Each structure stands twice: as C-alpha cells, then as structure tokens.
C-alpha cells in the first residue's frame, strides 16, 4: 500500500484564487487503493459483488468468527474457557498472582475469594487446626460429633471394602430397619428394626462360627437349636429324653418326685366333661386313687397288696357291697345274705314236711313182676312194706315222705 505522492504524503486542497492546485489523484494511487480494498473480501474466499457495498464489513466479521473458533491452533496451547459450562453463569472470573507473592488469587466479578490452595500445599493445610475442626482425614480420624449420611432415595448406607469384599450397612426408610447386606449386594443378611426386633437370613451362631457343630450354639432357621449342653441338636435331645404328646413312648421308668409331696398324676376326661382322676403315691407305699374333686380316696392299695375301696366292687354280674353282701343273678336267693338266711342251722334235725306215701312195689304180685321202682324228687324212702309167707317175700312196697331242713 502506498500514500499519495506528495512531499509530505498528505492530501492538500487547492486554492484557485491564488493559483494553487490541489493534490492530483493519480492512476497508480487509485489502483493501489482498489487492490487493498478488494484484498479484504477475497482473502476470506468471497467473490467481489458490484451490487454489495458491505463486503469489506462481512469479510472482517468472518475473520473475527473464524479466529474465535480456532484459538488453540493459533495460540499453540489449550486455553481455559470462561463460563458457558453446565450450571455456570456469565460472571467474570479473574485469576492473578497476589501482589505480595503469597499465591494465586481469585476474584469473581468484584468478589475476592482469596488464595487458591494448590496440591503441593494441601499437606500443610490439613495439619492446621482450623482444617481439622471440620474435615475428616481419610487415612483415619476421630469424629467428635454425630456423622449423618443422607443419600437420596430409599436407602442410605456405608460400604466397607477389604480385598475386594464389599458388604454394606444401610438403612431402609420404608421398612424402618438397619440392614447388613452381603458383599454381592443381593440380599440382607441381618435386619435390626426400629422396634428392637432382630432377624437373620440364615443360621445364628453364639460363642463361635461353626454351624451345627463345635463348642458354640447354633440357632437354625427352622427353630432348632444346636449346643454342647444338648449333646447336639435340641430336637434330638428332646426326642430321646422326653415323652412327646403326639407319640408318647418311653424307653425307661417315669419318676415323679418332690420332697415333702405325695406325688400324683392327673388324668383328665373329655374337656367338655371336666372330670378328673388322680393317681397318688400312698403313704408307707402303695397307691391312692383320688376322686375328681380331689377330696376323697375311693380306692387304695397298700405296699403289700391289700386293697380298700369306699363303695361296692363289681365283678362280672356280681357285686360285692360295702356291708359284705354279694349280690348277683347267679348267687342263690339273689344274694349271699339271703342264701345264709335260708340255710339249715348248725345241729338242726330233718323234719317231715308231708305224710307217708306208698309207692309201687318190687317183686311179684299175681304173677306181675316189677324189677325196679324209683321215688320221684323230693320224696325219700322212710320205710318198706312186704308181702311174705313163712318161706319167702314175694313183693316190697317203698314208703316215702318229703323232708324239710328245719
């Protein structure tokens, strides 16, 4: 580009009244001006348009826009962009070295934020009491107040990690419990509810970690208990030691005893009848059977086999009454007392209860021979009558009476 061809390189106005000519516009100068102006739009790839008088302005705008999108190549390093990030405003952020040389200082708009803490300075900052007052060292520290962990959502917890094993302790806002979760984060192994209830997903061991063995106790999920005091599982101990209500079978003697007590066993009839019988150990040996009201002993047996009872004894169709009488259909006269009352007294003589009657004969009468004659009951023979001569007896008639015992 060149200036106008005048001694001082400036334009001068002429004064015709004084005969002074103005600066002459030459062809070389105008050609230079034209090339300079045309070079501006052509340098950004624009074709000259005689109808567009704003091509130089457009060319300059394009240069500025192109320059704004290509800072890094032009600068030769990665710049920091101010603002326009997610959640960022358009505030002016100003970073500069402090005048006193204490470090980098940050100002946002007119708000002085103070010095930046660099990584090389963190160790020194962490040792300051004002930092320790509100920060916890991840390498180990002591909290002097309550630590609250609030995680958005239904669960809030802490993950414990050791050699790749990562169980967690968490709270459930809906269930109101603290849960210990397994390392795979697929199941809760233990629940502690707000009301105090504790539940486990599997067996619970006390005094050790062996399940169903060793010297510790195990509470199984089905309610069974294992422990050395039982010699194994409690269900097995109970089966081998006690009588089951559902399958009552004992393999040894049952002993019911207590000092100063006549041991007894209560047997109850149907619940709707509410009747009972009590089997009680008798003093000096033997057995008492006590009534339902537990106020009388209807039957008892001594240690040597003697028996007593307070009412009649029934054996088949016979009854032994409390007064000693025996009553029954097969007892003579219906009872022993009646039979005794109808017996002959000691020393009693037999008396006739009828007159003498004569029955048929044995022998020969008028050539009719009878070889045998029997008296019917209850007649007995009391005498004989004969037909005889001096030389023989030809016939004998039996004579009889009915007797009574008194």
TrEMBL record:
According to the record, the residues making up region (Disordered) are 1-20
Q: What is this protein called?
A: Phage tail protein
